[in-house]
Amino acid sequence: MIRYALPLCLLLAASCDSGDIYPEQRHPEEVQMNIHATFRFANTGAFPQNYRIVWGAFTGTSPYPLAFETVAPAGDTWNATPLQTVPRGADRMALALAEKNENKTRYVFREFRIDNTVPDMNIAETVDLATFSRIQAQVFTPQCIQCHGAGGMAAGLNLTEGNAYGQLAGVPANADNSDKYRVAKHSIRNSFLIDVLTSRPETVTTNHTTLSTLDAADDVALISAWIMSGNTE
Questions:
Q1: CA 8, 76, 213 angle in degrees (round to 5)?
Q2: Domain end position, chosen among 100, 128, 156
Q3: Which of 88, 108, 128 is the C-terminal boundary of a domain?
Q4: What is the largest CA-CA distance in the chain?
Q5: Residue 206 is part of which domain span?
Q6: CA atoms of 88 and 99, how far apart (whole Å)
Q7: Which of these ranges, 72-81, 98-107, 178-187, has the smallest mean pLDDT?
Q8: Choosing a second label site near 189 at 20 to 30 A (CA), which of 31, 153, 196, 198?
Q9: What residues form DSSP beta bridges with 113?
């Protein structure tokens, strides 16, 4: 389900030196620039509680924003205070999932290059919060592949990037006491992966609830929203 719009407006303003003393510091590419962005969100049940979604300015390949505003729900809408300036050196704007403590980016939902030769940018995007690529970046790669992929093949399951989807969607669990699928389309109840992450004792013998690097509830909410949306890769 798509809910609500998040209007974001950024003003990039920079002033040139007078040239009287330090003409070498003049940067002709620094011009006034208006960046207008509107995002509509799908699968809002996957909005994180223990990460943050940020709209920020980045440079190069750094996962840390130079400046950002946190996107947060307010009542029945999604609101964020617009950035008023973009720091010198920023070459892209991104809507990203970041760690709360260090602001390190875990996943980029949308990215837009900053072109100082274009005076205005108008962005209108629909953003799905429950994508499989986000699950890979938030859950499988940092938490699971030590046992299910790069570090081993526990339960014959490979959750490395490029392999995980084919190992889960519509695949029989064939584990413990379960006759479920590892992931069943549109059905949390019939998805063994949810049993594993919530440690349901009737089907799971290995407790995975303590493995989350941040918060298992966020991981379960994300995967549940993805399952209910139809399991697209």
A1: 80
A2: 128
A3: 128
A4: 79
A5: 132-229
A6: 24
A7: 72-81
A8: 153
A9: 92
Task: Tell me: do 31 and 50 sit in the same domain.
Answer: yes
Q: H helices of the chain, where?
A: 132-135, 164-168, 192-198, 216-229
Same domain assignment for residues 70 and 161: no
DSSP lists the bridge partners of residue 3 as 41
Residue-by-residue DSSP string for 113-154: E--TTSSEEEEEEEEESS-HHHHIIIIIIIIITTTEETTEEG
Structural tokens at position 142: 């940092």
Who's near 76: CB < 8 A, 6+ residues apart? Answer: 4
Predicted TM-score of the model (pTM): 0.80
- 104 and 166: one domain? no
Averaged pLDDT score across all residues of the chain:
78
Indicate the pLDDT class of residue 7, thresholds 50, 70 and 90.
Answer: very low
Place of tokens 């919060």: 129
- Residue-wise pLDDT tens digits, 26-43: 332 333 567 777 888 889
Query: What 3-state DSSP class applies to 107?
Result: strand
| CA 149 to chain CA centroid, nearest Å | 22
